[in-house]
Amino acid sequence: MSKKNETAVLVLSLLITIGLAGTGIWWLTSRSGINLGGSSPQNQTFSKSPAGNFPQSEQAMGQRLSAGKKLLIPEKATTNKQAAVQAIASSNYGAAISDLQASLKTNSNDPEALIYLNNARTGDQKSYTIAAAVPIGTDVNAALEILRGVAQAQNEINQNGGINGTPLKVLIANDDNNPEIASQIATALANNSEILGVIGHFGSDTTLAASKIYEQNQLVAISPTSTSVQLSGVGINIFRTVPSDRFAANALSRYMLTKLQKQKAVVFFNSASSYSKSLKSEFTTAVYGDGGQIVSEFDLANGNFNATESVKSAISQGAEVIMLAPNSSTLDQALQVVQVNAKRLPLLAGDSAYTAKTLQIGAAGATGMVLAVPWHILADPQSNFPQTSKQLWNAEVSWRTALAYDAAIALIASLERNPTRTGIQKALSASDFSATGASGQIRFLPSGDRNRAVQLVIVKPGNRTTYGYDFVPISGL
Fold first, then answer.
1. Average pLDDT across the chain, whole number
2. DSSP class of 43
3. How many domains does the chain have?
4. Residue 219 to residue 424: CA distance in whole angstroms
5. Statement: residue 47 has pLDDT above 70
6. What is the pLDDT of residues 384-402, one digit of tens each?
7. Which domain holds residue 14?
8. Whether residue 198 sits in one domain with residue 112
9. Quick one: which of 185, 195, 330, 400 has the fewest CB in 10 Å?
10. Rounded CA separation 177/357 (Å)
11. pLDDT of 189 over the 80 cut
């Protein structure tokens, strides 16, 4: 080949490489929802965090963070609440307080409004600030449940004079339960010296992604909802108030083998979820360890998943029990299994199925389903939290609210000891650390895990909800 032709081939190869790279970037951004350009705040997402990728503007990140200057949950916002954020943005805290109080009279079940009210009452005076990272864009109900626990703890400590006389502020962060966005949220929080601790994140994958940033920056994060065993010992700054999947799996395995007297189970899970894989793996280990057997597994995230055929196949293989280990994104597929099963086989499930949707859609087909959850409002009649929470929110609260409350209480207790980032970590890690939360004593193992048993609940007909079915604690186990 002539030198001229060699040059032409090299130029052509370079052009093709550039074109493929450009196509790859387009594919990545379109597949992951990453937006390299401008869009409306509601739809704006972020590129991957700084590991050689393309972080978005500070203005775009700001649309996901608020201590009161903007609404992150605009659904059902009263006119008073809308006026309040404008007043806070103008440092007109008196007007904001009046508007938020009026808004809460109209909608007493709004944790965003209560957080902004306490922040407005604090105004520009000295305060301690923590952040709450929640999945507003993808699971607003879960976000609200978590924020209610944080808001209640903030409200109580501030009404009692603050932390050694200093009020507590809360910054809300919306990470959409997306690991890439969570990493950027974590970076923004870590770079803000006012943030002393974080409550979050929601899903285990999201918490795992953000934990790397928190660990690098010595910023404590306490997750109230991430249960994957992968989080155990992931770093000295990562804690959780929810028990790990090992506790839930062991409880469900024992129930299957001793109470149901069944030996063979089929597991439905999501292979793309750390939480789901963790629960499936721990349940499998527990079942085999107790003398049982897993006859089959089905991936709820498989594009060809068919609930009817999967249940039929499981029964033909001798399955006696169905174990559902979906995460929030595959709950609909799990509920298809519930409907198709039509009460033929007993049902077990993890805490992601503890939602109103299970009662509403599962309905009669879900009757008898047993779930392992961290806490239930009826399980501890000696606790004051069920009464105080119901009085504050004018409704019963979920385990996510209780465990988020515990996470906030743990941060408050550590701030009382030493209100610095490193001081919080040392306080939470101390062998003598203890605080009283919604679900009893809060103590952490060296792994950052909470040493606490789970609660089994069963779906029964009832009138505590509007769906005709309730989650009821199983006692004596």
1. 89
2. G
3. 3
4. 9
5. no
6. 999 999 999 999 999 999 9
7. 3-32
8. yes
9. 195
10. 19
11. yes
